[in-house]
Amino acid sequence: MAKGDDALARKKNKSNRKKMNRKNDSAAVSSRIAAIIAAKKRRQTGKRSMCQGMCFSLPTPEDPFNEKLGKVSIVKEKKKKKKKVKSRDALSVNKSSLKKPSRDGDEKKTEKMRMIHGPRKLVMLCLTEIESSFHNLEKPLFTSTWGNEFWKSFHSGKDVVETSVTSSSLEQIAWIVSTATDAISMREKYEESLPLSSSLFLLYLVPSQSKASEVRSVCKALKRLGVHAVSLHNGAEIDHQISGLKSLEPEFIVSTPERLLEIVALKGVDISGVSLLVIDELGSLCASGYLDAVKSIKQAITSEHRSVVFNDSASCTPAVLSLLGRF
């Protein structure tokens, strides 16, 4: 390569280096301009740093050099944040120190609310279903004074002895089975810890097959609501009744005392977990010699339960006293 060509190459390289330097300088200038624009935008939106606040604020006699500008507000904000954190900690401590209400307290509160507001909607729905099945009623079932008094006694944990009539009426049966249906619903909702080995809730003892059919006809109206009732008496084969009990698992059983004891002896049904025991026509049961059978059934119920006795015979008063220790 000639000498003149070397000189031209060096000159060209020098010019290229100058161009690269100029590009770097322009990039630096662009960065500065971008910073200025960003600062201007922050000033317009009110988001300025401490030094920018000093530049655009006038001095005061107390702070002629703007040394305290912005510092006080920042300190105050920090203090406020600390206070908020402390309040949150205190709140968390208070929440952790609170005790959850006991289950017994909730149940007592529920019972009080029931007593204040009267029978629930489910009771009224059951009574309506029964009314639709019986068209010859003289008055609506929900207006029954006896029914409302029974409902209050049941939820206050008291036993009931009815001495004004010999046998239960359709109105009384309707209120008993409707209250029992409502109690089953409440137990499933609030007492989930109870064992589900026995689904039997109501045991209705009657002296005859005809009375058992009458009671079951009232319970049959509640089948649409998921409540099943079984009638046990001497008019049917015992094996058939036992197989029906095992397959259906009823909530209500209407039975004569002697047939029930036979099925219990054969382990066809478990009555230990009954919650409501109704003894209808106790005078007839005593006259027929079934008082000992009724006592055996009462002793077989080991769970806490309520009892309802229909008896207008003064001669059976000792029997009532022996069945119900509180009377």
TrEMBL record:
Stored InterPro entries: DEAD/DEAH_box_helicase_dom, P-loop_NTPase
Comp. bias (Basic residues): 10-21, 77-86
A Gene Ontology molecular function term of the record: helicase activity
Key word Kinase present: no
Composition bias type Basic and acidic residues, residue spans: 101-111
Keyword entries, A-Z: ATP-binding, Helicase, Hydrolase, Nucleotide-binding
Protein's name according to its UniProt entry: ATP-dependent RNA helicase DBP3-like
Native species: Raphanus sativus
Gene: LOC130504756
